[in-house]
């Protein structure tokens, strides 16, 4: 532990630090590091000569904390020595700290040095240098060297430059961000989602949450091949992307599926749907945000362990899959989430506030729900979290694979609007039995439409 008075002695007016270089030897590395770490705020009259010396210490941590300490002084007096560190220190952490310290000077004298750091092999250092240079964003020299980074290898570097220097998009949204078309609110359409979406205007939905068909593992969908299945999902999420408002979310519930073997002479086949769909989503303009794991009790899932339990032969191990993913994506935009939040009035923000006791981790322990009519329904508790954490009251929420309509019902019960599509007539009828009645809190009746009726609807009657 470092004594408080030795730190105090180093601080303002500490013209004679307790250890000048000649006394430094007496102090060991640990003590120096503790001093540096505990300095806290320091001001311009701090005598930093000994800190400069420490920049050549053998200890990486001492060099790191020395660069940090010099950064606090924000003085171009240390530009040359920090430049040496930024160029030559073997540790990229220390080089980055030196570049940060140079940036903190906010001095035009630092422009050249920060420009050199743009050539560092570590993209984090390049980003740090960009940060320092952006203080002089409109200086023609700075502009030129930053714009040239638009072709940089690293994606984060490219993104920052794109955001700072690209012309703002000229497209003006057709309606305020929180609003949506009345003729899409609380509507269920019977039909193939791709056909239905042809009649939905761009930038309509605030959130999409869905569980697509499980390739050929259940009886309600048949695809000629796994490639055909992925191609279909690609088209659906491409279209959902167009119909999603700027910066809003898509949450996809999937898991690998097993298509059972045809006989004992063959093996079953496992399809890694989440991993195969992910690159397609990113390529079409969805930014990956989070992976949430929906964990079910092991007793509720199919037991694959019976054989292994008997023979215990390695390689024959088969864990019981009791998890599914909720893959969270955001429609790519340069705008921060704060921008999305700022589009709502204070009352909506207040009314939509997530209550205490919310789930803080990415493992959501929720029991599955079994339904007598539909074999793969969402538990309402799962939908509830998605609605509450990823939308505001009054938003329009979409499920392209509506099934029994759990997501729509939950959205409605939480004062959001929903739009669902479902191609199977018996599930469409089943939804009506839930949705038509018993939900008095919404002023807007649920409408069940055929594709033809939906396509022919009168548009534009009042938007809220
Ligand atoms: C996994 S289930 C969704 C269940 C739903 N999450 C629930 O809570 O009831 C997938 C649903 O997508 C429907 N479906 C499959 N292909 C479709 C398509 N091309 N267009 C619309 N719905 C489709 C199936 O009939 C099935 O009901």
CATH class of the largest domain: Alpha Beta
Tell me, rounded to a whole number, the average pLDDT. Answer: 89
Shape type = globular
**Spatial strand order of the main sheet:** 8-6-7-3-2-9-10-1-11
| Bound heterogens, unique | S-adenosylmethionine
Name the CATH architecture of the largest domain.
3-Layer(aba) Sandwich
Helices, by number, come to 21
When the domains are counted, the total is 2
Counted beta strands = 11
CATH superfamily (homologous) name of the largest domain: Vaccinia Virus protein VP39
* Low confidence ranges: 14-24, 460-464
The share of residues in helices is 40-55%
Q: What is the straight-line distance between the termini?
A: 63 Å
Radius of gyration: 29 Å
* CATH topology value of the largest domain: Rossmann fold
- What does the main sheet amount to? 9 strands, mixed
Name a few traits of the molecule.
464 residues; alpha/beta; Leucine-rich Repeat Variant; Rossmann fold; 2 domains; 9-stranded mixed sheet; two-stranded antiparallel sheet; disordered C terminus; binds S-adenosylmethionine
Structure, described:
- With 464 residues, the protein is an alpha/beta fold.
- The chain folds into 2 domains: 162 residues, Alpha Horseshoe (Leucine-rich Repeat Variant); 268 residues, Vaccinia Virus protein VP39 (Rossmann fold).
- The protein is built from 21 helices and 11 strands.
- A 9-stranded mixed beta sheet has the order 8-6-7-3-2-9-10-1-11. Strands 4-5 form a two-stranded antiparallel sheet.
- Strand 2, helix 13 and strand 3 form a beta-alpha-beta unit.
- It is globular and about 80 Å long.
- 32% of the residues are buried.
- The structure holds S-adenosylmethionine.
- S-adenosylmethionine binds next to strand 10.
């Amino acid at each position: 532990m470092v004594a408080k008075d030795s730190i105090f002695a180093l601080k303002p007016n500490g013209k004679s630090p307790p250890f000048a270089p000649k006394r430094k030897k007496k102090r060991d590395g640990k003590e120096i590091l503790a001093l540096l770490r505990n300095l806290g705020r320091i001001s311009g009259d701090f005598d930093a000569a000994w800190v400069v010396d420490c920049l050549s210490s053998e200890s990486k941590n001492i060099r790191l904390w020395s660069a940090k300490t010099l950064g606090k002084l924000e003085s171009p007096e240390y530009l040359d020595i920090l430049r040496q560190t930024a160029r030559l220190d073997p540790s990229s952490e220390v080089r980055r700290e030196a570049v940060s310290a140079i940036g903190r000077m906010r001095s035009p004298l630092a422009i050249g040095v920060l420009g050199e750091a743009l050539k560092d092999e570590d993209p984090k250092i390049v980003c740090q240098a960009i940060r320092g240079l952006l203080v002089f964003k409109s200086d023609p020299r700075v502009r030129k060297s930053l714009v040239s980074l638009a072709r940089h290898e690293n994606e984060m570097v490219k993104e920052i430059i794109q955001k700072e220097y690209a012309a703002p998009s000229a497209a003006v949204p057709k309606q305020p961000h929180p609003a949506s078309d009345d003729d899409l609110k609380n509507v269920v359409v019977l039909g193939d989602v791709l056909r239905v979406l042809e009649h939905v205007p761009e930038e309509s939905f605030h959130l999409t949450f869905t569980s697509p068909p499980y390739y050929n593992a259940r009886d309600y969908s048949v695809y000629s091949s796994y490639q055909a299945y992925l191609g279909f999902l690609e088209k659906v999420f491409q279209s959902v992307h167009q119909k999603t408002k700027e910066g809003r979310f898509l949450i996809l519930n999937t898991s690998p599926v097993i298509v059972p073997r045809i006989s004992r002479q063959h093996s079953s086949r496992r399809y890694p749907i989440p991993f195969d769909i992910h690159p397609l989503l990113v390529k079409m303009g969805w930014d990956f945000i989070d992976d949430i794991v929906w964990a079910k009790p092991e007793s509720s899932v199919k037991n694959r362990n019976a054989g292994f339990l008997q023979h215990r032969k390695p390689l024959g191990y088969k864990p019981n899959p009791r998890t599914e993913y909720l893959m969270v994506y955001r429609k790519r935009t340069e705008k921060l989430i704060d921008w999305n939040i700022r589009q709502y009035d204070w009352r909506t923000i207040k009314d939509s506030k997530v209550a205490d006791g919310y789930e803080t981790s990415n493992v959501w322990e929720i029991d599955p729900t079994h339904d007598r009519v539909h074999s793969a329904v969402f538990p309402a508790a799962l939908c509830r979290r998605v609605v509450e954490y990823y939308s505001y009251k009054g938003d329009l929420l979409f499920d392209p694979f509506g099934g029994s309509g759990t997501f729509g019902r939950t959205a409605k019960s939480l004062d959001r609007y929903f739009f669902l599509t479902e191609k199977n007539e018996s599930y469409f009828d089943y939804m009506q039995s839930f949705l038509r009645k018993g939900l008095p809190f919404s002023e807007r009746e649920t409408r069940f439409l055929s594709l033809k009726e939906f396509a022919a609807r009168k548009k534009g009657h009042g938007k809220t």
